Amino acid sequence: MRTGRPLLAVATLAVATTAAAYVFGPGAGESPAASRTKTAMAAPAAACKADARYPKRELRGVWIATTQNIDWPSKTGLSPAKQRAEYVKILDNAARRHLNAVFVQVRPASDALYKSSLEPWSQYLTGTAGKDPGWDPLPFLIDEAHKRGMEFHAWFNPYRASYGDSTAKLPAAHPARKHPGWVVKYGGRLYYNPGMPAVRRHVTKVITDVVSRYDVDGVHFDDYFYPYPVAGAKFDDSAAFKKHGKGKKLADWRRDNVNTLVAEVDKAVHDTKNHVKFGISPFGIWRNTSNDPSGSKTSGMSAYDSIYADARAWIKSGTVDYVLPQLYWPRGHRLADYTTLARWWAREVKGTDVQLYIGHGLYRVGAADDKAWRKPGELAAQVGVNRKLKQVDGSVYFSAKQLLSDPLGSVDRLAGSRYGRPALPPLMKERGGKAPAPPSGAKVSGGTLSWTPSGNARAYAVYRLPKSGKDCHTSDARDLVAVVSKPSYPAKGGTYLVTSLDRLYNESDAVEVKAG
């Protein structure tokens, strides 16, 4: 179980006197006398209150759905060059809005948007399941995110086997065709049976394969566990229940099956690479008070009862690093009020090491069936609710298609009012990491601030200090102007601070550079 909530690292700062570049904070190789001088000079900055409008650390992500070509690629059969261009356009738009994470669907339905020996190529690349697209997209997708200082979370659907209901129509090497006993036909689709240990082993193997071979920052599950109810249809897992149920009630057994997979994936991911995060985006309602007095005061579908997803169990057992509930309702909704749900989830993670991000329904903005979603400021207002709850560590938006189309100008409004400055992702102590050495050799030449790369630094944070007025330096993001992967930044005059960041965004002490 994870214990102890991560603390935010704040660099010790002072004012440089004679050097053009100066490292702030004791222990940077300076003399004891210099260290004492800097600490004393830094006291006013350390006492400065961080400005809540500019959080230093806040996850800001977007889901990029590949299933049915929702977001990327926009259609099947595009050339690799056009696929790359479309993805870059999405990331550039995300970076312009100061987002810092992408959640890219790499396994929509027991298929792969990467080179795999375990599952066939996804049909959403070429139009034909199993057809080689001529390149492996995943290294490119990851690298482009990292170039922009963004985390890359590989998004897997664990149980969906096919959008059709015939194993005979699947590629010959498809696991569901090779093991038809693993699947259940339901609602015109094929699903892997969560009650079968062989299914859990396969899903875990697929995920471990990706984590071991690719430089992902996270593994992500969406809200599909047992399938959403279909009127008049029965999910026939009776044979597996008879064999593995061990006297449990069916509903309890199904939840245990999901919980077991979650625990096994959590262990496999961290055993493979401890720094990789694992999280789940459950349906927004765990249970209603009508189902359970400890549930939320809502009246929607219960994930616990309908799809056997017990997010509370994952939180309590510590088998996830984060939960990202999909709160796709507006504030004031009659059946599922956004604020009520955000507060409920905040209480659930309180006192644990499981981080909480909120999933927002960007795709709902402008919807004709709900007047609340016809207000362009609804998303920005929801982030305002989040920031009043200290357990909420950020937001993720569904999905990238609307990030580009910006319905009602809501994305620009959100970015302008809430994301006026960049932010670093929250620290996650349990995943390790260590602040890199500060940058060295910092200088300004020809209008460019540059420095020598630092050891294990993944990226660098650049702050531009104001000419006058109260300043908190790196205690919040009011002076943060960029998070860059290359050791350079256009300098416009004034005084800059630069810090090194490792892959988990642990931050070094700061180096000061005057640009004239």
UniProtKB/TrEMBL annotation:
For the keyword Lipid metabolism, the answer is no
Any one GO MF term held by the record is: hydrolase activity
Query: Mind listing the UniProt keywords for this protein, alphabetically?
Result: Hydrolase, Signal
| Region Disordered, annotated ranges | 422-448
Which Pfam family would be a valid example here?
GHL10
Q: Which domain of life is it from?
A: Bacteria
Q: Where is the Glycosyl hydrolase-like domain?
A: 58-373
Position of the signal peptide: 1-21
Descriptive protein name: Glycosyl hydrolase
